[in-house]
Design a protein that fits this description.
156 residues, mainly alpha, 8% strand, globular, 6 helices, Arc Repressor Mutant, subunit A
Length: 156
């Protein structure tokens, strides 16, 4: 520690690299199956499931981007592509003249309702079913702790 850096020890490095490898492999597998099964990308699914699960019929694009941790540019471009495919509608915001709201179209609702069963099965097969109930409880506790820390820093 002469250089002032708190380098990772073997156990910390194993946990960190294991997490990173698992995340990349799991994300790639689940995303690949989602696209093969439904034609939706992970970002499409994220937007559609958020809109479908929301009690609000419309979402402000800025709020959606914040919720998904996307930049304004990424949010705008991705939603424009989704709108061109008929998955969402865009409307002028009722409370901000410069803002835009989005809502789920009937096509978007059908797409998420069709995709969800196979996607949930993929998540179950590649993640949930690989863990014990104790593992799941530990993971929920760990992710809550790290997420609370990041939120305290102003990240979502």
């Amino acid at each position: 520690m002469a250089d002032g850096v708190r380098w990772l020890d073997d156990a910390e490095r194993a946990a960190w690299t294991g997490y990173r490898q698992m995340k990349r492999a799991l994300d790639a597998r689940v995303a690949s199956e989602l696209t093969a099964d439904s034609g939706l990308s992970e970002p499409d699914y994220d937007v559609l499931s958020l809109l479908n699960d929301s009690a609000a019929p419309r979402w402000c694009i800025k709020d959606l981007g914040t919720r998904l941790l996307w930049s304004p540019s990424r949010t705008s471009h991705h939603l424009a592509r989704m709108a061109s495919r008929g998955l969402i509608d865009r409307f002028p915001c009722e409370t901000d003249a410069r803002g835009t709201d989005i809502s789920l179209t009937a096509t978007g609702r059908r797409a998420i309702e069709t995709a969800a069963p196979a996607h949930v099965e993929s998540v179950r097969r590649h993640f949930i079913d690989q863990l014990t109930p104790t593992d799941l409880a530990d993971l929920a506790r760990i992710t809550s702790k790290v997420t609370a820390h990041l939120r305290s820093l102003g990240q979502q």
